[in-house]
Model the fold of this input.
Amino acid sequence: MNIDKKITDDLAANDVSFVTTVPCKQLAGVIEEIDQRDGIFHIPSNKEDEGMGLCAGAWMGGKRPAIIMQNTAIGVTINTLATLIQYYRMPLPMLISYRGELREPIACQVEMAVHTKALLAQLNIPTYHFHHQADVEEFDAILKYTFMCNKPVAILTDANFWGGYGDQ
Amino acid sequence: MIRSEILKEIAPILRDQLVVCNIGIPSQELHAIDDQSSNFYMLGTMGLASSIGLGLALSQPKPVITIDGDGSVLTNLGTLPTIANNVADNYILLIVDNGSYGSTGDQPTYAGQKTSLTKMAQAAGCERVIECQAEDTGRVLQEALDAKQMTIIVSKCESGNAKMPPITMDPVVIRDRFMKAVQA
Done:
């Protein structure tokens, strides 16, 4: 299964047409797939809170948005999640590269990994963790859930899910 | 001229447009001067007005005016390259540049010292960037609407705030009525 294509297909099938990204090596394939896909407007952000602002505007403009980012971004975006996305009750699927998990080669990434789920739990953000490739089967249902409840929802995707870091 | 005097002067222009207004006293002033369902008031999240406005402009055809401040743009400087590289000709970013953090006690910003937001917007790649004096804001804003070309306006004005009450409207109400105005 090509998980980059499956994720992009699910986004398109759920009418997600505005995607902002801050890159991560693990996410390179899905970002490239989204960039090439007709019907999805891809707008890279310089920082993840900026990206959430773009998504908020897009949603109020009638488009379904999504953000793709690394888990370190949870540290950057807590205020935005609380005072914009949650306060105004907006839907936001967050496809998150979960760095610092099993197979991680960079020790510093573990420092935010150990806080990631605790911070998401503190914010009452529904959180899913994709560890095996087969977990991607739930992505479609997670998107439907997100736009049903108008909440930010986190999908943590670790190195095991993506198949390792290659030569990094 | 201070910000609230500019807002009073441009209120008749803003009334018919989608407006995203910066956090704090700017939103309180606009709300008190001329509340409209087509105004999206930010109650939190300093710095993101220009990003919300851009996302909105890119997602639907109506003109969008973001009223931002120099301090808030400095907080989210990455917004300028993103705006420059994703041109939305229905987007106007009006930066009310009073050289101070108005909502927190008028502490000076760097934009009131050596830093030029006009030049930073130009260097970011924004093509239509107009710096004006406060008194000319209405004319420049109307010209930007008529030009139908993405415009960054840097309106240089004096520091100071009008005393207005906080916005007590529920955020979901602000957002819901705004979305209905977008769709109308």
